[in-house]
What we know:
single chain; alpha+beta; Serine Threonine Protein Phosphatase 5, Tetratricopeptide repeat; Glutaredoxin; 4-stranded mixed sheet; 3-stranded antiparallel sheet; 16 helices; 7 strands; LPA1-like
Amino acid sequence: MLGRGASARQGSARPLAAPRTLPSLPRPCRRCLRVRAAKVAGKPLPTSAKQAVEEGLEAFNGRKDYDEALRLFQAAMDLQPSEPEAVAALYNAGCAHAKRKEWQQASDAILRAVNEYNLKLSVALADKDLRELRDTREWLDMLTEAKGGLSREQKIKLRTEAKAPFRLARTSIFGGLAAGAGLGLLIIIGRLVKSLQGGPDAPPLQESLTNLGINAAAVAVLAFFLIRDLRSSEADTKVTSREEALSRLLIKLGPERSLPLIRFRGVVRPIIVAGDRSYVERAVKAAEQYQTALRARGVSVVPVVYTDDPNAKLRALKKELQQKPSSAKGFGRGADGGGGGGEGEELAEGAGIGNSESLTEEDRKWRLEPAAVGEWEEWIQQQKEFAGLERVQRNVWVQIQLDGTVRASDVGSPPWARFVADLPPLDSFKTKVTDGIGPSV
Length: 441
């Protein structure tokens, strides 16, 4: 939580497209209205932003009444608050929304506090009340819009350049040389025209033809390398954009808990197995004999069963019922369904992209269940089109590296034995050097 005297970061803020107000609260029940009316009747309504913020903090911290806290923080914003009071009202409203698991409203409130009132983002990064919010897609989206943050396009550009660190320098050098050679070619063409016209001051024809050939060849060679690098950059940008889209896909860790795949970056090597249920189950079962070795390498299986599978809806319903003890009759054992959880080193805490502070040892399961399967299917279709697999077979696998890059994809059963042979253990020096592990961004 943030009090009235919260410090503000200096510097010009990047204004939003249009000022946003705090999201409206859901309509309470009649009984709640009567209780709230009784409270209001016994205590005068705030007459200043300062009083509204203080009463809102008391409702938040003292009574844990997040509905009332939101109402008071909204009232503070309507009472012409000073900048510190506006920061406190918006920020604490974001905390209250987070407690209610209203992730979008919470992110919007924090974003306004950062962009419009110069709140330091580090305050939100360290607040325990926002711990769950920081593991949501809404939070990741907010970071791309926050003042001083990186937009999604900038992230894609930086990751693309990191894959080929010398390409930008080559492009600049080849571009400059090609421009110089092109200018020289224009001058030589003028001299060649004079040579063909003849006259006492005309340059020798042979010399002009020789210079023309040399400069034309230089322009052609430099243009070839320049165009090759530009096309390679465009292709890498598309790949990186698809990998960033992959990082936003959700993993379901419980009935009410989902994390974007990016939160597993740096600690898990996902292998996506996508197709009909029979294919997925066979592929996962074939991996069981290698499970210990694969877990030592950080491998987790993400089984994506296509939604057009005739039995998919029935099985999904059974799994949902199994997760509710009161409705689990008649459906055998639990819904984990796959090989048990692996063991590994304890995860580091942090607020960055990988090594999420909310990841537990149990979260690094052998089998990670996808949420919002339709989004996974859409991404897999894009990957199949890129790899030229869309017309071959609908059942595919995709191997992801620790840094979120796609290492390989193909049809048929995943080559589990080859994965064991090719992938180094998580604690090896080779993993740290070759698999993109570094400081959290």
